[in-house]
Write a structure and sequence with these properties.
Number of strands: 0
Helix content: over 70%
Distance between the termini: 113 Å
Low-confidence stretches: none
Shape: rod-shaped
Strand content: under 5%
Radius of gyration: 33 Å
Structural class: mainly alpha
């Protein structure tokens, strides 16, 4: 049995494999850490953008609301309700569609008040 490695040689092979496995795991963990750091940074950027879009949209909605209230105030028998509240079920990817719906609705309101004619005075 001279071809078989001795226990010491076998032990060294096992230790070398364990060390290589530990180094491979460490390399993978470092690469994964960099990948996750990049993903976190991207998510933080997206959160910042979404926050800015939310603030901008709230400002636009409040501007449209103030204009609508101004138009409604011309009609003495009509009172504007409470200002709009954010809708938590709204989908962020549909923001432009939501905003596109506001302008025609405002113009319809404006036209309806203008069509009242003498009653609006």
């Amino acid at each position: 049995m001279p071809d078989e490695p001795t226990a010491a040689v076998r032990y060294k092979e096992i230790v070398a494999l364990a060390r290589k496995s530990a180094d491979d795991l460490r390399s993978w963990e470092l690469a994964r850490t960099e990948e996750l750091d990049g993903a976190i940074a991207g998510a933080v950027t997206e959160i910042d953008r979404a926050t800015q879009r939310e603030q901008s949209t709230a400002e636009r909605a409040n501007r449209w609301w103030r204009m609508a209230v101004d138009n409604v105030s011309r009609v003495s028998w009509l009172e504007a309700g409470a200002p709009p509240e954010p809708v938590t079920s709204a989908r962020g990817e549909w923001l432009s569609r939501y905003l596109e719906d506001v302008r025609p609705a405002y113009h319809e309101l404006n036209q309806a008040i203008l069509n009242l004619g003498w009653r609006a005075r």
